Amino acid sequence: MTTQPRPFVKRRQRLIKTRFQLRLIAIFAGIALLAQLFQTLLMGSYLAQLAARMPAGGPVLAEETPGVLVQTLAASSLLLLPLILLVGISATFRIAGPLYRFDQYLKGLKNGSEVELCRLRRGDQLQDLCQVINEATEPLRARNAARLAAESSEREAA
């Protein structure tokens, strides 16, 4: 006797493992901001070299460069951070969801609830880990099915 898989319901909550997801998003944002800062420093260096070589207008360019770079860094950060937040939530959703599912599945096993196949939504990451969990719990499912079959035949015999 095989158990029917649970119907999949679309996740409504995007931050499933909030702390984990926010930590990953903060790492993404930190790396992006460091890259922006590095790019701004390189641009400033190149503009300073250009200003020094210019026959005319070099001092004006050198004087205006820091302000322009700060404005550019601020504007691009204001545009980039919300984008990183949205993309980060979307990207971590495909990892945090399966982690939450594994957590619930393993707690169910620990509590002795019926053993069913571990299933993830299409597009989720960690599908291979789900398959390993299914392989590891196959003996439990076989024992459970045999027990249910024996109980069913005992009821029919009575």
UniProtKB/TrEMBL annotation:
The chain crosses the membrane at residues 20-48, 68-93. The keyword Transmembrane helix applies. It comes from Engelhardtia mirabilis. This is HAMP domain-containing protein. Keywords: Membrane, Transmembrane, Transmembrane helix. It comes from the Bacteria.
